[in-house]
Specification:
single chain; ATP binding; 17 helices; 31 strands; 678 residues; six-stranded mixed beta sheet; ATP-binding; alpha+beta; Nucleotidyltransferase, domain 5
Length: 678
């Protein structure tokens, strides 16, 4: 009996230990239900959270303010963030970093790097030869990349959210400008990883604003399309977006409201910061004129004095938005000399006259990309702090031809609220009312490759081909598969941006390289040797443009097919089980392919400027898919001579002829290929 007790005791202890672990996991899960959003602006950021009992709340910082300056001060042993760092900007301007998001994903020769140096000469920028990017040289021993500085700020934003929620938070949705390209988006993701955040999605700030507007007006959305224009002028840039709201029938949730991004226009450098810099320069000129003849130094050579002037210019711009004139005054600006000068709104508008002329530009770009006219726009809504400048509203109202501009949205917090709603929708801990979001691709992406072709004279030549993967203003997230039909050996292909003709010459220089990457495939020839008796179905490359707008190449595989005798009466139990599992997980061809969102399109060559038409049998297959399938979901054509692809006409003839024996079924073999460069 004693022996029996000794045998059971470890089992009881193990059961208690297992229950303790499960209880601890449940408690830990209940403590991490909160999610957050970070609306990362150029000048300030807004943090919002959702947790049980607290639906969509803006986080207050340590100074009990709803927005926090995007400012970081770095010393040898200290770091300051937000308002604390902003107050250090005058004492230690070199170590206080602001507007560093403008350097994300930028190489040293980018015009925005030169612009940053001109705007903030107190900062010393070094060059990283390995990454071909710049970094901040705070001291000989202290240097940080823009991504590292951003990661510190994101970590600080998380600490604010955790203090407000009184529980740990890891999941976040972060807003980014709609015009961010792949390099800039990846830089933000890298910063979030360094901060220990799990990014549920990088959401475009214009999309987040549109979502916030739609969520709070859900009852007003019906089957009739409503076209709303959002004009967002912030501190660093301006984005104009055309959004269509209407109810649609979804597969899982029935009829639900949907927003679709129809058109986007932007100006990367038009914003409140440029206005403040113009005012700062004006105040510096006035101060130098007041001290003329006193052999005084130029105030522009004093970083502390220029930091004081920039702060006063910011205040002056805000006050002049509501007053016709105001007195700028700074105590002890330089050399214990006080500064006082009157500035009128007319002078301010004259200083920024060329900036106001650029206000209608994003509107025209958005209309052009949406292929719409102003008559189709029902309302124009203002977003962003710089839209409070009266001259901006005056010029914009004239450009859109409306009776008035919409101001029925919180211009500062709309993006943060929309982003946190999306965070709750993506989190498994919350259940929210569905709201379908269809974002749009700003920069088209294509695949380019070169192969040898044999002409009629028997001479072999190289032919350049282009295949558009994701077209401009096409929806995402989206998966696509492109098939290379004419390769039997290792080869390379390039992933590039498509036609960027809608960008001006300066925007193209800021955009940077149009080549995303070059993919080198290895093992193609070996796969053909491995299946010599199988028919090649091509090399299939699976691409994914995810919810964050980030492109990835999931996998590349060489696909082969052959026919085998199908004897149902002799089919083994293991084979039946394997077929059942395959059907459960989407393997093989199924009749409801279209219902699952999979579409197969024969891609044609672009116009003569892009490349000549392919001859029969050389069209690339471009397939869209809702999810990455385990196998090719398109029904394969009947086999021909092994290793050769027949022209389309022959394939159609064989299908009509029905020569395929009923007792045979295709067996597909796939070989994953090694790839380098993505």
């Amino acid at each position: 009996m004693a022996a029996t007790v000794r045998r059971q005791r470890p089992r009881r202890l193990a059961c208690w230990a297992l229950m303790t672990v499960l209880l601890a996991d449940l408690l830990a899960l209940s403590d991490t239900l909160a999610v957050m959003s970070v609306d990362l602006g150029s000048e300030s950021m807004k943090v919002a959270i959702v947790k049980p009992g607290v639906p969509m709340e803006i986080v207050l910082n340590k100074e009990s303010r709803r927005k926090t300056p995007v400012t970081v001060t770095l010393k040898e042993n200290e770091r300051f963030f937000g308002d604390s760092a902003a107050s250090m900007a005058i004492k230690n301007p070199k170590a206080t970093l602001r507007y560093f998001q403008h350097l994300l994903g930028k190489q040293e020769n980018n015009p925005h790097v030169a612009l940053y140096k001109a705007r903030f000469p107190e900062h010393e920028l070094g060059f990283d030869p390995q990454r071909q990017t710049v970094y901040f040289q705070i001291s000989p021993q202290l240097q940080f990349s823009p991504e590292e500085v951003l990661s510190m700020l994101l970590n600080y934003s998380r600490s604010l959210a955790e203090d407000f929620a009184e529980q740990p938070i890891k999941d976040a949705v972060i807003t980014v400008p709609a015009f961010f390209n792949q390099a800039e988006r990846r830089a933000v993701l890298q910063a979030a990883r360094m901060a220990g955040l799990k990014v549920l999605q990088l959401i475009n700030d214009n999309t987040a604003t549109a979502l916030s507007y739609g969520v709070f007006r859900r009852k007003d959305i019906n089957s009739t399309a409503q076209n709303i224009m959002f004009y967002d002028m912030g501190s660093g840039s301006t984005v104009c977006t055309i959004v269509t709201y209407q109810t649609v029938k979804t597969k899982d949730a029935g009829i639900q409201p949907q927003l679709q991004i129809r058109g986007v226009g932007f100006d990367r450098t038009l914003g409140g910061l440029e206005m403040e810099l113009r005012l700062r320069e004006h105040l510096a000129r006035l101060f130098n004129e007041q001290r003329k003849g006193q052999r005084a130094k130029d105030v522009r050579e004093n970083p502390r004095a220029m930091a004081k002037l920039l702060r006063e210019a910011n205040r002056l711009k805000t006050v002049l938005s509501a007053n016709a004139d105001h007195m700028a005054q700074i105590e002890g600006l330089m050399d214990d000399v006080d500064f006082k000068a009157k500035v009128t709104r007319a002078e301010f508008e004259e200083l920024c006259a060329d900036l106001f002329e650029r206000v209608p530009g994003p509107v025209q770009q958005a209309l052009q990309s949406a292929e719409m006219k102003l008559d189709e726009i029902e309302q124009v809504i203002l977003v962003g702090g710089a839209t409070r400048v009266p001259k901006v509203q005056e010029v914009l109202l004239k450009a859109v031809g409306k009776e008035e501009l919409g101001k029925n949205i919180n211009a500062d917090e709309a993006a943060a609220m929309g982003a946190v709603y999306q965070a709750a929708a993506l989190s498994k801990a919350f259940k929210v009312k569905p709201f379908v979001v269809r974002d749009a691709v700003i920069y088209p992406i294509l695949v380019e490759f070169t192969r040898e072709v044999e002409e009629e004279t028997g001479v072999r030549s190289l032919k350049h081909n282009k295949r558009v993967l994701f077209s401009r203003m096409g929806p995402y997230p989206q998966r696509k598969v492109i098939t290379f039909n004419r390769y039997s050996h290792d080869f390379n292909f390039h992933i590039n941006y498509g036609d960027l003709g809608f960008l001006g010459p300066e925007d193209l220089r800021v955009f940077g390289s149009q080549n995303l990457t070059t993919v080198k495939l290895k093992g193609v020839g070996e796969s053909f040797k491995k299946y010599p008796d199988y028919e090649s179905k091509g090399i299939k490359a699976h691409f994914n443009l995810d919810e964050s707008g980030v492109l990835s190449l999931d996998r590349v595989e060489s696909v082969f097919e052959t026919l085998v005798e199908d004897s149902p009466e002799e089919e083994s139990t293991l084979t039946k089980l394997g077929n059942t599992i395959s059907s459960l997980f989407g393997g093989g061809s199924t009749p409801d392919t279209k219902e699952n969102g999979t579409d197969t399109v024969q891609e044609e060559e672009e116009g003569p400027a892009e490349g000549s038409k392919d001859e029969p049998g050389e069209q690339a297959e471009l397939k869209e898919e809702a999810e990455a399938p385990a196998e090719d979901t398109s029904s394969p054509p009947p086999p021909e001579a092994k290793g050769a692809a027949a022209p389309e006409g022959e394939k159609a003839a064989e299908k009509d002829g029905g020569d395929k024996p009923e007792a045979q079924k295709p067996v597909v073999c796939r070989t994953l290929l090694s790839r380098f460069g993505f």
